[in-house]
């Protein structure tokens, strides 16, 4: 299998193209400092992952800013403090402030000359629009959790991607799913029959960061530490 065997790339956005861990921590720290909450970054991200995934499973139709707000409330309680609603709402609205990884925009500009670019993201349309501006990219197709009515790793999100591809007469076999999270993306993508490319942004760091551990082992087809490495591998194939 080669990267040039595909006609389109479907991307997870947050954790893959947008540095959501930096964004989450930046939105968390002012409240934690004010409340005297002492916790390392790893512990904060672990509690975020647990609360976010639980909230998404319990309320799959809830808009992502509200999911984040409720996750924030749960995180505070986990550390022995109960945030007020205004702090939770501010955290929920922080997605437009989350930075892009330094290599994302340049990599997408290159890849866009060789592939159709698709997004399958666990956020709402408004939040993603702000992130797309940071990525300086016009994607060919965008599927958000708001469009689907559920959050990855739910099978419905990949079913929606497959339906969208079929409507455009694009075989699933010609699409490579590119993502960081094994939990949110690779396990359900492989189950749906997609080839996958793991952008291992946490390479060399312990733990799972802002994602839950995968429920089972999963075999990926490509494995890179960054989007820049993906681009370089594509160039080498030429």
Brief synopsis:
By secondary structure, this protein is α/β, with parallel strands linked by helices. Helix content is 48%, strand content 11%.
Q: How does this model look, in words?
A:
This protein is of the alpha/beta class. It has two domains: 3-19 and 99-237, HAD superfamily/HAD-like (Rossmann fold); 20-97, DNA polymerase, domain 1. It contains ten helices and six strands, in the order βαααααβαβααβαββα. The chain has helices at residues 20-35, 41-58, 64-78, 85-92, 104-111, 125-135, 145-148, 155-167, 182-191, 227-237, and strands spanning 8-11, 116-121, 141-144, 175-179, 195-199, 222-224. The chain has a six-stranded parallel β-sheet, with helices on both faces. The radius of gyration is 17 Å and the shape is globular.
- Approximate strand percentage: 5-15%
The CATH architecture category of the largest domain equals 3-Layer(aba) Sandwich
What would you give as the CATH superfamily of the largest domain? HAD superfamily/HAD-like
Count of discrete domains: 2
CATH class of the largest domain reads Alpha Beta
- Category from helices, strands and their pairing: alpha/beta
N- to C-terminal distance: 14 Å
Task: Report the helical percentage.
Answer: 40-55%
- Main beta sheet strand tally, sense and closure: 6 strands, parallel
Low-confidence stretches: none
Question: What layout of secondary structure does this protein have?
Answer:
Elements: E1 8-11, H1 20-35, H2 41-58, H3 64-78, H4 85-92, H5 104-111, E2 116-121, H6 125-135, E3 141-144, H7 145-148, H8 155-167, E4 175-179, H9 182-191, E5 195-199, E6 222-224, H10 227-237
Helix pairs in contact: 1-2, 2-3, 3-4, 5-10
């Amino acid at each position: 299998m080669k990267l040039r065997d595909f006609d389109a790339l479907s991307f997870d956005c947050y954790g893959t193209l947008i540095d959501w861990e930096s964004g989450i921590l930046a939105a968390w720290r002012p409240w934690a400092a004010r409340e005297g909450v002492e916790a390392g970054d790893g512990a904060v991200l672990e509690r975020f992952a647990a609360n976010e995934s639980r909230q998404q499973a319990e309320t799959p139709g809830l808009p992502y800013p509200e999911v984040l707000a409720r996750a924030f409330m749960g995180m505070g309680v986990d550390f022995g403090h109960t945030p007020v609603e205004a702090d939770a709402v501010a955290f929920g609205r922080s997605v437009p402030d989350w930075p892009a990884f330094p290599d994302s925009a340049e990599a997408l500009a290159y890849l866009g000359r060789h592939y159709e670019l698709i997004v399958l993201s666990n956020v709402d349309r408004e939040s993603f629009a702000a992130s797309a501006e940071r990525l300086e990219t016009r994607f060919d197709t965008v599927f958000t959790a708001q469009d689907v009515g559920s959050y990855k790793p739910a099978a419905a999100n990949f079913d929606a991607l497959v339906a969208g591809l079929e409507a455009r007469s694009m075989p699933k076999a010609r699409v490579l799913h590119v993502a960081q999270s094994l939990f949110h993306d690779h396990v359900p993508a492989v189950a749906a029959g997609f080839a996958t490319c793991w952008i291992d942004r946490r390479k060399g760091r312990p733990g799972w960061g802002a994602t839950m551990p995968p429920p089972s082992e999963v075999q990926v087809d490509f494995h890179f530490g960054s989007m820049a490495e993906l681009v370089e591998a594509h160039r080498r194939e030429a």
